[in-house]
Amino acid sequence: MNVIVVGCGRFGAGLASRLHQKGHQVSVIDQTAAAFENLDPEFRGRLIEGDVLSQDVLHRAGIERADGIAVVTNSDTLNAVVGHVARTVYHVPNVVVRNYDPTWRPTYEAFGLQVVSSVSWGTQRVEDLLVQPDIRTVFSAGNGEVEIYEFRVPPRWHGRKLNELLPDLPCGVVALTRAGRASLPTCDIVLETDDVVYFSTTLEGVQALRRLFKED
Amino acid sequence: MFVVIAGGGRTGTYLAGLLVAQRQEVRLIEYRKELLVRVHHELPTEVVYEGNPSRPDVLEQAGIRRADVLVACTDSDADNLTICYLGRACYNVPRIIARINNPRAGWLFDSKFHVDVAVNHTEILASLIMEEMSLGDMVTLLKLRRGNYSLVAEKIAEGAEAIGVAIKDLGLPQRCVIAAIIRRGEVVVPRGVTTFEVGDEVLAVTDREGEQRLIQLFAPPNNSNHTFRHADVAS
What we know:
The complex is a heterodimer. By secondary structure, chain A is of the alpha/beta class. Chain A contains seven helices and eleven strands. In chain A, the strands form two sheets. Chain A has a six-stranded parallel β-sheet with strand order 3-2-1-4-5-6, with helices on both faces. Chain A is elongated and about 65 Å long. The model of chain A has no long low-confidence stretch (mean pLDDT about 90). In chain B, a hairpin with a 4-residue loop joins strand 7 and strand 8. Chain B is elongated. Chain B has helices at about 10-20, 35-40, 55-60, 75-90, 120-130, 210-220; strands spanning about 1-5, 25-30, 50, 70, 95-100, 115-120, 140-145, 150-155, 175-185, 185-190, 200-205, 230. Mean pLDDT of chain B is about 85; it is low at about 225-235. In chain B, the strands form two sheets. Chain B has a six-stranded parallel β-sheet, sandwiched between helices. In chain B, strands 10-9-11-8-7-12 form a six-stranded mixed β-sheet. Helix content of chain B is about 25%, strand content about 25%. Chain B is an alpha/beta fold. The chains are: A alpha/beta, B alpha/beta.
């Protein structure tokens, strides 16, 4: 794939290096040449120094032939503007922009862009690890509105049915691992100690389950 | 008329002051503390709204929903484009005007981001300065884009061919009309019998052929390196 990464801070440089390692053709744009020092020494790709709002810079990065563009600078308005141009002027098939300050989400929503909020996502992960290790997040859809969690069935829930434990929860069961073997369970499966249950739910859903964990 | 101005730099603040003096309703949005001190010093308190104008909630609280005109004149092109886009896409503001900071970003300031009029101050300033320097040179004031016509201005240089000649005797081509003569600060309405004097500033509507003829007539006798200068004003 031909991919453009706009913004070569730690985030952009890390992304560009990963894409290069996976064998993609990567062009990196940044307004200051010094930023390219953030890149992995092994990185091989095109480096373009310049103002990304200049048409000439976008063309030199190959935006007309790009399969994807990631706009990950630390300016939310710049990310939104470049994302909008990539999508509506150049019809780049895959446009992803980074949301730097989470309070700027409504601006991105107005543009209808695919957004990754690294700060929201990161703080949520840290909070999970810090506060509630018995129910872990394993996958996050969107920017954490719905997530897939896993938990290990405690001995006190042995012999109970999943849908007894989770009667009113807005959730879907994704998989169950028993003795190292995964299966697609129905909600009336009888749990055994140390089963690992994977389920998807909202933030409210997981809070309800966490209260249940504490009550028993 | 209710005007919302985003950005309290010198341009935004001065514009807000002019509109206040004309008794228009104005709201200026600015968030940078260092600028707000000066803004508050120059404008009435009720005109200033403190917040970042690239954010929908701030625009809403500043009254964008009932704005007749939105002016984006922050010193960031990305901010100005975001503000213009929000102004039309979310709030349907009827007229949107934006300032271009870096001319290289100028290509984005059109319907892509719902900009109705883009003001490129670098270009305007440069062409005004060139106009002031132009004794004997012609300046294009306005391109009339639907035809090949322009509104041009030229000062009559000393020793020029046209001096003392009546308009009807100049032999102007068909598609060239003298629109006005500015003589010692007064407008003279041109008639066939009007003659030209040194220092007259002549406004003409003309096609390219007419421009060439006017240059020959108004330039100093031995001036061979005439150039056209275009102040690109949207028509």
